[in-house]
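Please review this one:
***
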Amino acid sequence: MNGPVEHASASESPAPPSARNGPARRPLFEAYPRLGERLPHVALGRFPTPVQKLSGVGDRLGLERLYVKRDDLTDPTYGGNKVRKLEFLLGDALRAGAKEVMTVGFAGSNHALATAIHAGRLGLKSASMLMPQANAHYVRRNLLASHRYGAELHHFGNMPLLALGLVVRRLRGLAAGGRLPRFIPAGGSCPLGVAGYVNAAFELKEQVLAGELPEPDLIYVPLGSMGTAVGLALGLKAAGLASRVVAVRVIETRWAPPGQMARLRRATAAFLCALDPSFPRADVAPSDLTVRDDCLGEGYARFTEQGVQATELMIREAGIILNGAYSAKAFAAVLADAARRNLKGKTVLFWNTYNSRDFSAVTAGMDYRQLPPAFHRYFEEDVQPLDRAGLDR
């Protein structure tokens, strides 16, 4: 397959400050300086992300203390939860002397786009190895933007073909550049990437201590590649917060089984403890991280009526954009629990993981036929019926 022919200019994606001026402040590093010394890291995002009280939405739901953590604003170009993980994963690639990175996902992967954008800021090439998914407007936008930012795009019909493609592409990278491309797993969810959300929990603690919000009773997040939920649960324990994580499943169990989540949690804890033995070994109890399976609908990336209603409410009352495949389903769980009066008297934090930066100008005027032919169908076939125009930029 042919790679893209256009690249974002340096003026569009300036190098992050820490690539020039040394490590940035992160609360996890201040609490555990040895982790700051040993973890590979490059500052990409603007932190802390704001905490905002959702007064209008809360009034509608009968919740006096409903807040949102605006991880949609992690970066001026392209925000979302992946930036926190990529600070560590791309830091690792730089430390290893890599020239390019490669990652996997579905056709509209927000993670693959974030990787392309932020890798490019650091002078790294990127390749996205993608599989089919339900069509949506955001899929088209992400594919065009990935191409614009220089990602080499490949499409595979199933997992065995993807696995074979990964081997071939890595060997090709080795032959061309003398070293293997650095591999980043789906969603950036490996112990190194998960450290980004361990740090996020320490960031939240600082905001609680500063009086920006009360300590949450419940924190709602989407559950896809599992790294965000696992990192928050571990970080909350380590930071001494009693908040519980409600992980709302947005992908089928076969892609994110409970056993794999438990292994990721244990591996991340062991990884951080190995780097700094003073990091707490506190175990995450089942009540600290619960998984909700009732908001998935017909499957991954298939929008639900409840998710659309949640999106419309958030846009109308708070001006915040959600994504039908991920954050809309997580916020739909908040609405459902509020309707059942399960949240009465509680402090609830919705952690918005979806990018809200408008980059329509980046893709304006692009011809989808510049993409490899396997992706053309996402532009020639209809999007799913619930993907209403204007809900997701």
